[in-house]
Specification:
disordered C terminus; mainly alpha; 8 helices; 45% helix; three-stranded antiparallel beta sheet
Length: 233
């Protein structure tokens, strides 16, 4: 399966209030995709895109709103036990919403080729070459136990790019401090249907899937390295 990845300086920089500030905030909503469900075909078919976005991502959004409402009630009652018990749901569903909002911006029907300019220079500096970068990202991603994400992030304190993996829906920045630039969803819901439809069998391994993904992925040719948080709401 082929995907098109890119870093964009045009992503909105405004962030909503932290999850803890729940008193007056509005409910989270499922973001619209910047392209049609079928825009990435034949690499990713419309059916898997629709399922992934309108079902899986929407479930994270809905469950996050429910968890935040319960947390708001627990705050009003001063029920610390309930507040603590809701933290896993906030982390899982909040992370799922954040991760997928970033993920959709990493996909584009207009991507192509290797990155150029500042981003390519940073990749060469921190990984030696673009090929080494892909190899390391693959190794880290396939090493995720169970479900999770492979990430390219920016270490602001050290001023360098860094590859990391996060389990389940743990958000990269919230758990590692790295600013997310490129995310690979290695949950089976991101690809199992596509693989089945193409091969009439499930993928033999996650390695096979990621080799397909990274072998043909693309970056926008006019991209420069920017550290811009993705807006989510």
């Amino acid at each position: 399966m082929t995907t098109f990845f890119f870093f964009s300086s045009r992503i909105g920089a405004k962030l909503t209030a932290p999850l803890g500030c729940l008193v007056s905030r509005q409910k989270h909503t499922l973001p619209d995709l910047p392209y049609d469900y079928g825009a990435l075909e034949p690499h990713i078919n419309a059916e898997i895109m629709q399922l992934h976005h309108s079902k899986h991502h929407a479930t994270y959004v809905n469950n996050l709103n429910v968890a935040e409402e319960k947390y708001k009630e627990a705050l009003a009652k001063g029920d610390v036990t309930a507040q603590v018990s809701l933290q896993p749901a906030l982390k899982f569903n909040g992370g799922g919403h954040i991760n997928h909002t970033i993920f959709w911006t990493n996909l584009s029907p207009n991507g192509g080729g290797e990155p150029k300019g500042e981003l390519m220079e940073a990749i060469k500096c921190d990984f030696g070459s673009f090929a080494n970068f892909k190899e390391k990202l693959t190794a880290v991603s396939v090493g995720v136990q169970g479900s999770g994400w492979g990430w390219l992030g920016y270490n602001k304190e050290q001023g360098r790019l860094q590859i990391a993996a996060c389990a389940n829906q743990d958000p990269l920045q919230g758990t590692t401090g790295l600013i997310p630039l490129l995310g690979i969803d290695v949950w089976e819901h991101a690809y199992y249907l596509q693989m089945y439809l193409q091969d009439m069998q499930l993928p033999k391994s996650r390695v096979e899937f990621l080799h397909r993904l990274l072998k043909c992925h693309h970056f926008c040719s006019d991209t420069t390295l920017v550290v811009v948080p993705v807006a989510y709401k």
